Amino acid sequence: MQQIGGNIVNEPMTAPVDRGERIDTSAVRNRRILINVLRVLLLVIIIGGWELATRVGIIDSFFWGQPSGIWAQIVTWVTKGTALGSLWEQIAVTLEETVLGFIIGVVLGVISGVVLGRNRFLADVLGPYIKAGNSIPRVVLGSIFLIGLGLGIQSKVALAVVLVFFIVFFNAFQGVREADRNLLANARILGASQLQVTTQVILPSALTWIIASLHTSFSFALVGAVVGEFLGSTEGLGLLIQNAQNTFNANGVFAAMVILAAVALLSEFLITRLENSLIRWRPNTVSDVTF
Amino acid sequence: MNITVPMIDTDARSQRMPNSTAPAIELENVTKRFRTPNGQSYTALRDLSMSVAPGEFCAVVGPTGCGKSTTLGLISGLDRPSGGSVRVMGKPVQGIDPAIGYVFQSDAVFPWKNVLSNVAAGPLFRGQPKKKAMQQAREWIARVGLAGFEDRYPHQLSGGMRKRVALAQTFINEPQILLMDEPFSALDVQTRTLMEDELLNMWSSLKASVVFVTHDLEEAISLADRVFVLTAGPATVKGVYTIDLPRPRNVAEIRFEPRFVQLYQEIWEDLRNEVMISYERTKQQGGQ
Which residues of B touch A190 (CB under 8 A)? Predict the structure, then answer.
């Protein structure tokens, strides 16, 4: 793979596969323009309607917030900082908890999924406990972690890990189980050891499943971090929301929500990039429905 | 059946391989039972005996689902017999022998590896240095006519090309025993004939013993030295036919020769009954 130059990559070839080659006819372009215009229009109607309704007095902006107020709140936080200190610091703290929880949860989930997927006996022994563990509303564990690990970052990371772990675990487990028996047999005949079968056949075939779970599990990591901060912390976006809530600042809650959404969207973008680079071998079956 | 020859006819083979008289593959009264999901036992093979001489090309034909693939699984060591013995090159099969190559019916190339890595997989698994493995892989890719496609992924290739990758992937390990499970059944007729010719070429230079499972009698006769006809499941050997057509053969044309037609008729006579039995059985099962 390494020694190959990219000399024939874009040659026409006998087997037709045009991954993502755009057929840019004007009809397609017009459709895309229409879609974008309608999207913006929808946003304007919702935000504008909300703003209008509060100004006219149909909706009480004290309880339900107001778009202009939310914007003003964000501007204040960015320019003057929050009651807890700089906004960026709060974002950084929450992000740190999220990313740490996400990475630890993913690694543990993948390892456990592969081990149990490969070992039927172990899977049968542990199966009921895993099902039970999964059915617990795990957010409640946040309180335990807070008591056990304190107000610092550890309790939030732990909560994020617990939330992420099960999602990734079940996907990895399923991915391992779904690995093509023919491919496994072929690898063994070609001379692969058990370890080589795991790393070169099982893992790549489970990767599609694992990566699909990363999208959901990152948002769960974010939920873990923010809920952890709700329950008790000294900094972070969750605390910012809680402060806003305690002072009846609806705009503050919404403003923090907007910031969280931006963080989630950015991470989603990065995970999609990772996905595309990791499973490049896959035919382009992923439709272009983007939400 | 006056054509049926004794199971072990070493004298015909010994001319090709003078040094080894022991069969390369030997199955003796092999029985294989599977447990069905509802707890019952299903017998796929019963008292099946066959032997393949070193360098011999054997084809196995039989009705669909009669246990042809099961036989290959036992020889390869992927599966164990419930009774009887399976020996490869004189030794009882225990695990997967490195001397064995196996071409599967469905696509078994790794979809996440490009052509070069797919072909180099065998030598790399077996601990060869990367540079040498890649070098060898390039040679084999060129031999199967895929030079220039080294960095393509399997989904970017046609069915015939993927089969070539599978052949190169198997042949690069230089197997002495080559097991093929209906390898060309998914290909169109033209591609298939080409691949059959190519297989014969590669086989003649490799001198491997081949067990080629197929449901296509024409394919069996045009490729093989001997054809084994299996009964409808549980499978056992019904008849063995020596194909005395001269080599090298041209697969596309050999089927028009009178001797070919004659052999075809003889073997088909034998096979037809089994196909009918198997057909009636499936109909009954469907009616239940």
Answer: 121-122, 125, 169-170, 173
